[in-house]
Known about the structure:
Layout: E1 7-9, H1 14-24, E2 28-31, H2 37-42, E3 50-53, E4 63-66, E5 69-73, H3 78-83, H4 85-90, H5 92-98, H6 104-109, H7 112-117, H8 125-131, E6 135-140, E7 143-148, E8 153-155, E9 158-159, E10 166-173, E11 179-186, E12 196-204, E13 210-218, E14 225-226, H9 228-234, H10 241-253, H11 265-286
Parallel strand pairs: 1-3, 2-3
Antiparallel strand pairs: 4-5, 5-10, 6-7, 6-10, 8-9, 11-12, 12-13, 13-14
Helix pairs in contact: 9-10, 10-11
Amino acid sequence: MIPAAFDYHRPGTLDEAVKLLSSYGDQGKVLSGGMSLLPSLKLRLGSYAHLVDIGRIPGLDYIKEEGGFLRIGALTRQSTLERSDLIRTKYPILADAVSLIADPLVRNRGTLGGNIANGDPGNDQPAIALAVGATLVARGPKGERSIAANQFYKGLYETALARNEILTEIRIPLPAARSGGAYAKLKRKTGDFAVAAAAVQLTLNAKGAVDRAGIALTNAALTPVEASDAAKFLIGKMPDDKTIAEAAKLAAAKSAPGADRRGSVEYKKDMARVMVTRALRKAVQRAGGK
Length: 290
């Protein structure tokens, strides 16, 4: 299908982009990599009179550690994350996920900011943002503001971003010693969304017990799901098979998937349990546990 007609704008600066979005209100939409937006426009699942392409605004494509955070510019492409030695060596939860996102063609165009800001519960990186306790930085007419990832998702394709705000940076706290993360995903084929997927980030204390944990689920409800009960259950416990199994059960209980061609509700909830189990085991191993 062909999208409805729209005007295309390519601002050269963030300030210019924010002004355009402020002028057009509900009829304006940010275009980043376009890997989610353009298909939805072609299918007439949505339409906007004005697309504001931020893809060539300088200074929004970077990966660096600074000020106690891993800071990633919102225009950083998935393929850039995939090739990053820093991501592979210190942030394996991101490395796990990026190679499972769609296919190489999509990863060459898709951006981290677009994946997170789109509000699609089937996207992989929102759950990671929840698990690692990320902060999302947005720019609007009143300047810059920071939003905790667990306050960002409000509903299906609905986020805390105002219409005239642009996500500019993702900040992830630098991992403490004896930290490990992992992302586990079940999908039918390359390019498909997850049947179930889980993100886990944890830190072990000197005795090997869990000191900090974050768990989140992908495609398990109308928003990414933060499994806070499961994470709290882990604190202070040794991450043995029994503890991991109970935490995975608690996390899966938070899911509320819908039935579709990928499986029934019961199947998806059980696969969420399985994915949390796998991610927890790998995260513990990466943190130096047994």
